[in-house]
Amino acid sequence: MKHDNIERNLGILLVFTMLAISVGGMVEIIPLFFIKETVEKVDGVRPYTPLEQRGRDIYIREGCYLCHSQMIRPFRDEALRYGHYSLAAESKYDHPFQWGSKRTGPDLARVGGKYSNDWHTQHLTAPRSLVPQSVMPNYPWLAKNELKYDDIQDRMKALRRTGVPYSNSQAEYQRNVEEFGADVAKTLHIPDAEKNLVAQAQLGNYDTDPSNITEMDALVAYLQVLGTMVDFKKYDDDYFVKFR
């Protein structure tokens, strides 16, 4: 009878509903404040370099995430097609993450190193020249647009405020040397961001045109790093070894 009265009284029902939601929320959220590490540390995972970060910005700007996910689920068919399932640590420096919920095109979590720079440049310029059945739009302007990177330091400072360990002082730089090694730490130092971006673009020649630095350079640099930071042989378990 009391239960019936609660269901018939909208005000009382609302109060009890909010109480139930509040208690449930506190049970789920409060323990997280007492856990020092909620994401397991994985060797090799690092923040993006300035060039890779600009490429990621372009990836988001062009809406690539609407058709491509970056999250391999722990199922047999996923492992057979894409490789080891995604680890939470792989996305720890992504703001926002690119897990996605739709696959008009394939998952890109392990696309790094799978194809050459030439292939990516051609595929982004004219997808059907390589994959006739593709429904992906052409992106020819990426190879024509010079990359804007005069604000890269501001972008990195903004990400630093979200917890991405880019360094802006000598003490922070030394912290990154200890955490990631000297070679990686150099690429994460904000005062040298423009210099590091240019150096990586010229060395990598991602758009196959060394005469200038384009948006294609940045986007291909980003695609080529996806899935390459972790040595997944260390994380293989019996389930996935059987299906390789």
UniProtKB/TrEMBL annotation:
Organism expressing this protein natively: Methylobacillus rhizosphaerae
Protein name as it appears in the record: Cytochrome c oxidase cbb3-type subunit 2
Keywords carried by this UniProt record: Heme, Iron, Membrane, Metal-binding, Transmembrane, Transmembrane helix
Membrane-spanning parts: 12-34
Every Cytochrome c domain range: 50-163
NCBIfam families: ccoO, PRK14487.1
Statement: the UniProt record of this protein carries the keyword Isomerase: no
Pfam families in the cross-refs: FixO (PF02433)
GO molecular function: electron transfer activity; heme binding; metal ion binding
